[in-house]
Amino acid sequence: MRREHVFRDRTNPLDLYDDLELVKRFRFDRQTILQIADLLQEDLESSTLRNHAIPPVMKVLIALRFYASGSFQNIIADTFNIDQSTFSRTTHSVSNALVRRAHKFIKFPSGHVIKENKVKFYAVANFFPNVLELIDGTHVRIIAPLQHEEQFVNRKGYHSIIVQVIVNADSQFINIVAKWPGSSHD
User: Which uninterrupted H or E stretch holds 173?
Assistant: First the structure.
C-alpha cells in the first residue's frame, strides 16, 4: 500500500542561528554556507515543479550537518523534518556536486615537489616514509569572549579556539584555520 505524501514545515537554520551557532553545528559561517550553496546551485536545483522541493541552500545545510556530526541519517532527517530517504538522496547529490568541483579547490603538489617533500620529510623522520605535508589541530587558549562565552569552553575547562595547521617539509605553514570555538568537536 502506498503511503500518502506528508509535507512538513521546514525551518531554515540560517534564520534560527547566529554565525557562532552555525559554525558549531555546520562547521561553516553563514557567508560560507551561502557561497557553497551558490556554487552548487545548478546541480542541486530540483527539476520538479512542485512547491515542496527542498531548496539548494537547505540541501547544503542537510549535508553539512551530516558531515559535521557524523550522526545517524534518521536523527539528522528528523532535525530537518524530512524523511530518511530524502536525507539520503540529498546528501548523495550534495556530495557528488562537491566532488565534481573539488579540482577547483583541492590542489596537490606537482610531481617533482612531491618527490622533494618525501625526501625532506624522510630526512627528518625516517620512520614516516612517503609524507608530503603534516596536519594537526590544537586548542589555543583565549580570554573569554563577552558573547557566547560558553561555546569557547573546551573539554578541559578553559576558553579556547581550535586551530588547524598544515606545514610542508620546509616547516612553512601551508594552511591555517582558526575559527572553531573550543567546545566544537576536534
Answer: strand 173-181
